[in-house]
Write a structure and sequence with these properties.
Layout: H1 5-19, E1 22-31, E2 34-41, E3 44-51, E4 58-62, H2 74-83, E5 87-93, E6 99-106, E7 109-116, E8 123-127, E9 133-136
Antiparallel strand pairs: 1-2, 1-5, 2-3, 3-4, 5-6, 6-7, 7-8, 8-9
Length: about 170
């Protein structure tokens, strides 16, 4: 099941206040396009699941454990190297769309984890302070180093879409 923009707004209204100012303790990648963050807030730890699987793009808290591969995938290794111990400053929905931003303060400075939960083109991107793409979950390496731009709005099913990256 893919969450629509209204569902995502409701999920964020519930989990945003719980996760803000939490610290990322652990990062897992149980599936090729699914990330789980263990986020510690005073008195408890929450597990935030972010999936950009084409048939189940979603974001929510989970209590279940997820089996992980014996060796973490490269995207998970990157996240662990740069976000272990980082603070989650904010989590918000962008322009009432199926795009979620996690604003994070890491030892490398401010970073954004951007979750495009948009069906077949769903992706998780890591952006630097200038909003350049540092890494992405689906390995669309052509975007690396480019400035992130929001996807076009409206029905573009019959029109060719220009590149969102400058």
């Amino acid at each position: 099941m893919i969450l629509n923009k209204t569902d995502l707004a409701l999920v964020l209204a519930e989990i945003g206040p719980v996760l803000r100012s939490g610290w990322i303790q652990k990062i897992h990648q149980p599936q090729p396009r699914t990330i789980v963050f263990d986020i510690r807030v005073p008195g408890e730890t929450h597990r935030l699941l972010i999936s950009c699987e084409t048939s189940s793009a979603r974001l929510h808290l989970t209590t279940g454990s997820h089996s992980n591969p014996p060796t973490p995938p490269p995207f998970c290794q990157f996240l662990r190297a740069h976000f272990h111990g980082a603070r989650l400053d904010d989590i918000r929905q962008i322009e009432n769309d199926r795009i979620i931003e996690l604003q994070i303060t890491s030892r490398d400075g401010p970073r954004t984890i951007l979750c495009e939960l948009t069906g077949p083109k769903a992706n998780i991107l890591v952006l630097d302070a200038e909003r350049r793409v540092l890494r992405d979950c689906t390995r669309q390496s052509a975007h690396l180093g480019q400035t992130y731009e929001l996807p076009p709005q409206g029905n573009t099913a019959h029109k060719p879409t220009p590149s969102r990256f400058t």
